[in-house]
Amino acid sequence: METAIGQNADKYQALWDRVTSTEKKGVFAHFSPCWTGIPLMGVSWAVLRRMYPLAAMLLLALLVLNLAFPGESGAARALGVAILVSFTHKNTYLRWMAHCIRRIDAQGLAGPERDAALREIGGLDQKSGWIAAGVLILAAVVVAVVFN
After folding, report:
1. CB contact set of 40 (below 8 Å; sequence gap of 6+)
2. pTM
């Protein structure tokens, strides 16, 4: 897991230990706050972490909320959903990484080949994350100007 996550692995280790522990846990054991409560930043965070299916789902959810509830009520609902979902992002990331690691292990890779494959699926794709954030913020500004 550490090889796949990269330089920030220590930040996720405590949550991973809580999630995978067999001890009885409280209802909030799987939650960990994340800065992605800002609408649209969850999408760029998912792109940054190479979780493209999650990014697409988050973007779709925000769009549906804003289209279904135009005006301030849609924005408020989107903010509420973004904040609630942000508490599950780190757990979702860890489960995504575990899924990807199982796929790599199923290929029978070992040694340096396995490490290279782990580094490829994990870590941060900062360029794509920043591009996604910029595009989403620009799109939000354009939509706000056009529809107001």
Report:
1. 62, 82, 133, 136, 137, 140
2. 0.71
